[in-house]
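fyi for ur records
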Amino acid sequence: MNFALTPEQEMLRDAARAYLADKVPMARVRQIMETPEGFDRDVWSETAQMGWHGMAIPEAYGGAGYSFVELGIVLEELGRAVTPLPFLSTVVLAAGAVELAGDEEQQAAYLPSFASGELIGALALVESDGRWMPDPPEVSATPSGSGFVLSGTKHHVLDGHVADLLVVLATSPDGPDLFVVPGDAPGVSRTKVVTMDQTRCQASVTFDDVEVPATARLGSPGSAIETLDRLLDRVAVAVAFEQVGGAQRCLEMSVAYAKERYQFGRPIGSFQAIKHMCADMLVEVEAARSAAYYAGWAVAGDEDELRIVAPVAKSYCSDAYFKIAGDTIQVHGGIGFTWEHDAHLYFKRAKTDELLFGGPAEWRAKLADRLGL
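which gave:
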């Protein structure tokens, strides 16, 4: 394998970075995160037209047919700009669930709409115990007539307040199952919740006797936990790419400020403490990037190694991003703690990403289990 980007991948990275810098600069990010929806629909449509949404979706279903590495490049740039966009929830979570669990008819029904940007998706997993993969789920799917009736509440649903299609984990008589539910279905109520990271929205979603047809069940009966185990490995890698992008931007801000901020007649970057801190940040960024891209290669190649490298990437990149974001505030001193400076947006994203889909300790425990330790 080769960690160096191809000329085409470099063009993708440069184009994504230029677009986000032009359309969603930090001033615009601050405006968007104050809106009820929490994202810009024009940006959503334009990124779909540029092919970002269908990057890793097979061409047979309206996608571009690229690999997870190309998708990772886009995710890295989105993380670098802390872009408020339901991209992770739609492209990685909802579309990933349909791709892994859905039959051919379900894939044909939903994947083209995800690729075109017509559908915003969300994956509803978490319940009252706070676990990302509850087993068994509290939300019930009771057989009724030719379908099922869903009842219960899901929490921490990424972009659940705007999702056109919800992929819901529920307990049926066959065991844990995944169901696709329209976001505006009768009986579905959604409430946007206040979280630390205002650039990534979350919602609570309640299902009050929501009726769905039998065809709404994804995959074979009772197979949801196996599907989610595979999906969450992919999701862990996707988040790792975002974390690398954010960490890289924190490093760039820190180095730039260390060069321009003068104290005692000299730039603070000339002081040993700041110099060493920035050097350590660089080492952490490069190590995190290596972990994320190796895991992305494992996803793209459908390698068995993914079960090992996904926990490594998620746990290492989570720790690295959070530390780098904290050090960025230290380098900036007093101004780094203010609302006006962008450092706090990265710090809050780093903290929520650290806990997203399980914290580093959980992923390390998963790694130990998979290694038989």
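The chain has a mean pLDDT of 95. thats all i got for now
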